[in-house]
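User: quick one, sequence for these tokens?
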């Protein structure tokens, strides 16, 4: 969990610097009226006023320098805090896995990591600025009391009205800021969902309907924005009315005191300036608005950081052939039983096909075998060690996964195969084994071709996905990972898998009878249950088994 205070404290050395410069600015602001008032009295009395004007000029120069340093320190503080917060958010998103992030839309997560993190990073500077902004009005009250007690009384009565305006503004704007950010996240989530299926939307001719669906929340966003501006405008207007009233009250009392000889002209000038400073509490609406946005950003970031990372053990896998066992494994999600009491004992080094009708639980079985999700009941073991007890690094070195629609990551095609870029030799070997080298070598820059610009078919993307998984040393889990390949290429890759010289265990989800026929064993799933485990030729005698393949 993360709190507003924790985010604010990440400013480290910048916050004291921001605070010191804010105090210097407040000190200059409070000192100038007195110095200028002394100048006025010196001019009226015909005395030498040069030193007062020089002092005023020095104070102004000091204030300008403090403002410049404050601007730099504030920007640096926000930048560093944003980087730290984004690192934590990305860490929890990635380590949370599919199960941890299932309650978030992709676009909403992107909004939280990008825009909301920047809002949250304003917490420290905004809090320091808000505290420092109180110094001039409080100092003005004290200095007015020093000049004349009645001036302080008139000033204090007016400032109470300004405080009331600010309290109302702060209370209302916090809720509106959170609602605005949440609506932004919803729109981003819908947009991300549409972009992932843009070809289907275009081909179906539903672009206008999709546009209306994405922008359905736009009126809500507009409403929250209008409410925010109304609150700001109302508070600004109230402060604009109260401010002059404070000034008039102080000037009226000061004028009477001047007439009765209790004040000098310079003191009345200084009192008028302090009245303006006190009325300037209304300028805090901008700072309070930043605080409200920061608070909302922290709250939305905290929801992401609350994602529990997938826990991993510390054990290493012993030397073994990749013996995979399922012991009473059941998977339940949203009240639906996806796998029901699955017990399997798969020999190491075997090619095992997983078949079954749609919804039989094939992908769930593959995900559990690769520990992309955990069973609700039971456990999966690799060479006698429960997967949950294996360290993350050891598990990902031992188990490789490829999918029907692989998400390729990296700057280049080569990085998509080997994200760590450990060895060009290993990259080339994996590409050759999965026949990805055939088309990669024809790309303009080969393995250095930009992944984003590389023209690829669905089958070519699948080959890259296979190549990425190829470095696993114990178990390959392929979830319909050859479905988009042409028959000849699929046959070649199937031969590579079945004749794997590394003798790894291969768990292959497939809809093709030829792939099942080349496997050593076939797991026949039906409604989450294992109906049979046997060679393909033994199962082919069952009519319902043949119907799986159409």
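Assistant:
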């Amino acid at each position: 969990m993360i709190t507003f205070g924790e985010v604010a404290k990440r400013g480290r050395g910048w916050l004291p610097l921001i605070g010191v410069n804010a105090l210097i600015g407040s000190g200059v602001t409070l000192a100038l009226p007195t110095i200028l008032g002394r100048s006025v009295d010196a001019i009226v009395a015909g005395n030498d006023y040069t030193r007062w004007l020089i002092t005023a000029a020095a104070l102004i120069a000091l204030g300008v320098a403090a403002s410049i340093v404050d601007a730099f320190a504030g920007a640096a503080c926000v930048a560093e805090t944003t980087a730290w917060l984004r690192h934590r958010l990305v860490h929890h998103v990635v380590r949370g896995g599919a199960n941890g992030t299932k309650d978030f839309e992709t676009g909403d997560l992107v909004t939280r990591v990008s825009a909301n993190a920047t809002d949250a990073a304003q917490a420290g500077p905004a809090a320091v600025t808000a505290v420092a902004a109180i110094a001039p009005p409080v100092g003005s009250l004290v200095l007015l009391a020093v000049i004349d007690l009645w001036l302080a009384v008139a000033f204090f009565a007016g400032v109470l009205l300004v405080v009331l305006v600010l309290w109302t503004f702060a209370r209302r704007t916090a809720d509106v800021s959170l609602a605005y950010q949440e609506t932004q996240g919803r729109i981003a989530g819908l947009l991300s969902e549409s972009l992932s299926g843009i070809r289907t939307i275009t081909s179906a001719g539903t672009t206008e309907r999709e546009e209306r669906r994405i922008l359905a929340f736009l009126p809500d966003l507009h409403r929250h924005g209008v409410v925010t501006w109304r609150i700001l405008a109302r508070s600004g207007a109230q402060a604009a009315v109260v401010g002059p009233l404070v000034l008039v009250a102080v000037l009226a009392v000061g004028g009477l005191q001047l007439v009765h000889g209790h004040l000098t002209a310079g003191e009345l000038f200084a009192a008028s300036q302090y009245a303006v400073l006190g009325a300037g509490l209304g300028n805090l609406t901008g700072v309070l608005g930043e605080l409200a946005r920061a608070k909302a950003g922290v709250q939305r970031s905290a929801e992401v950081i609350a994602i529990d990372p997938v826990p991993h053990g510390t054990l290493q896998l012993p030397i073994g052939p990749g013996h995979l066992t399922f012991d009473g494994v059941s998977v339940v999600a949203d009240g639906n039983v996806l796998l029901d009491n699955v017990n399997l004992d798969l020999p190491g080094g075997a090619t095992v096909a997983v078949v079954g009708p749609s919804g039989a639980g094939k992908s769930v079985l593959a995900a559990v075998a690769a520990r992309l999700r955990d069973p609700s009941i039971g456990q999966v073991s690799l060479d006698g060690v429960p997967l949950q007890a294996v360290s993350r690094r050891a598990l990902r070195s031992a188990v490789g996964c490829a999918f029907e629609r692989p998400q390729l990551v990296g700057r280049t095609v080569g990085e998509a195969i080997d994200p760590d870029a450990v060895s060009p030799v290993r990259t080339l070997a994996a590409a050759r084994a999965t026949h990805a080298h055939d088309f990669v070598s024809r790309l303009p820059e080969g393995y250095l071709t930009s992944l984003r610009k590389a023209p690829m078919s669905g089958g070519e993307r699948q080959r890259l996905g296979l190549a990425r998984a190829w470095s696993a040393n114990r178990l390959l889990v392929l979830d319909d990972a050859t479905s988009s390949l042409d028959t000849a290429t699929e046959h070649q890759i199937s031969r590579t898998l079945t004749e794997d010289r590394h003798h790894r265990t291969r768990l292959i989800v497939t809809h093709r009878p030829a792939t099942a026929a080349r496997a050593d064993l076939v797991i026949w799933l039906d409604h989450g249950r294992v109906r049979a485990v046997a060679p393909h030729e033994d199962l082919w005698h069952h009519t319902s088994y043949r119907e799986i393949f159409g």
